[in-house]
Amino acid sequence: MDETNWREHRRRVMAEARRVVVKVGSAVLAGPGGVDQQVVADLARQVAGLAAEGREILMVSSGAVAAGRGVIASHYNPASVPHRQAASAIGQSRLIHAYDQEFARHGKAAAQVLLPRDDLECRERYLNLRNTLRTLFDFGVIPVINENDSVAVQELVYGDNDCLAGLLVGVIGAELLINLTSARGVFAQNPDEAPDAPPMACIPDIGALDIDSLCGKKTMLGTGGMHSKLLSAKRVAQLSASTLILCGREPGAMVRAFAGEEIGTWVMPEKKAISRRKYWLAYNLEPKGDIVIDAGAARALRERGKSLLPAGIVDVAGDFEMGAPVRILLAGGEAVGVGLTNYAAADLKKIMGLRSTRIAQVLGQASYPEAVHRDNMVLGAAV
Questions:
Q1: What is d(CA 158, CA 171) in angstroms, rounded to the nearest whole number?
Q2: For residue 324, what are the contacts with CB-CB under 8 A and spacing of at least 6?
Q3: Tag placement on the chain: N or C end, fewer CB within 10 Å?
């Protein structure tokens, strides 16, 4: 894509986006004694101003651990998950109070929503969350969401708020994710080695981007670094939503971006969006096992949009039931996609490699000719 096209796309999305998810990282909020109140004040001022222009803004905010650790500073060990969970429990009320106090200066109220992962896995609760958030928008309230750090070990170990922000883009149907970080954007070179190198202005095709190579192998997924932000952007792009990775510690950065200033890194969306149901299937459900397929089956899925038949399966890993979410992989480990299986693992092992016409002969009945139907499958998922 040439510069004119992505710049025009950025200007159009920034001007027209009505629903926006703003993710605030811990590094943006952290101050010497906990949360930097000046940063919170600046963020609240910007978000309130953007909301006053008719946008529905949902915030995903880290920072509870930073807000609470000062209270237990003499005993606090940052390497201890229980200590970090305790700090989070202490800091949650302090963090939402800081936001609410600053939003009140602009005639806005903040609503705290703590989400355990299974609230997004359960379809009924997922839809109920959507209704709750829409009602908060109707009331003109700013939802401030965090995973429930006090009990969610994965959040503290893997830093899942980047992932959570991407999931919430699907929940509310947002057109834009603004991911606020301590960096000025995404860098093609290590800023420590090339401090004068500018950030990338645009990532035109994040599906083709080698995120591991760009971020370095030592950057673990979900540590709160750029890897998890790019993975979130890759997922969001599948909804045809855009991402702007921006420095949240620069005063007024969001307002400046909406005014047309080309700061941060713009991530273009995919041209063809997947449905929100398929997005939920791909990223809200925890895979229970793996189905390994041969190269011919992979081509049939990718190039001809076919369902996965037992004949193309070469191995099955895990102990899962019918209807479970599973990863679909090539023998070398390359991810092909995710889907809902029509058969339990034990039955798949009996029929893998066989033609569909033999399923009834082996199992006694053939409930489905496909192992995974294409309507219940997402290819190229960033899992």
A1: 22
A2: 288, 289, 340, 341, 344
A3: N
Which tokens in the block code for residue 70? 């000062």
* Burial class, 25, CB count within 10 angstroms (exposed 0-12 / middle 13-18 / buried 19+): buried
3-state secondary structure at position 177 = strand
The domains of the chain are located at 3-279, 287-379
Residues in the chain: 383
* Residue 154 scores a pLDDT above 60: no
The pairing of beta strand 110-115 with beta strand 142-147: parallel
The CB density around residue 198, as the number of other CB atoms within 10 Å, is 11
Burial code (b: 16+ CB inside 10 Å, e: under 16) for 281-313 equals bbbbbebbbbbbbbeebbebbeeeebbbbbbbb
The DSSP annotation for 350-379 comes to: HHTTS-GGGHHHHHS--S-S-SB-GGGEEE
pLDDT value at 383 more than 80: no
- pLDDT at position 153 is 55
Question: Could you tell me the strand order of the sheet in which 335-340 lies?
Answer: 313-317, 290-293, 325-330, 335-340, 377-379
Query: Class assignment of domain 287-379?
Result: mainly beta
3-279: CATH number = 3.40.1160.10
* Contact present, 91 and 68 (Cβ < 8 Å): yes
- pLDDT tens digits, one per residue of 164-209: 999 999 999 999 999 999 999 998 877 677 777 889 999 999 988 8
SS3 readout for 260-308: CCCCCEEECCCCCCCCHHHHHHHHCCCCCCEEEECHHHHHHHHHHCCCE
Element (H, E) at 235: helix 226-237
Report which residue type is found at 165: A
Q: Which residues contact 75 (CB under 8 A, 6 or more apart)?
A: 83
- Quickly list DSSP for 85-133: HHHHHHHHHHHHHHHHHHHHTTT--EEEEEE-THHHHSHHHHHHHHHHH
Give kind and range of the element (H or E) at residue 59: strand 56-61
- Measured between alpha carbons, how far is residue 71 from residues 26, 27, 85, 225 in Å? 17, 19, 13, 26
CA separation for the pair 231, 224 (Å, rounded): 11
Q: State the Cα–Cα distance between residues 18 and 295, nearest whole angstrom.
A: 43
- In the block, which residue shows the tokens 């830093």? 159
189 token code pair: 């070179």
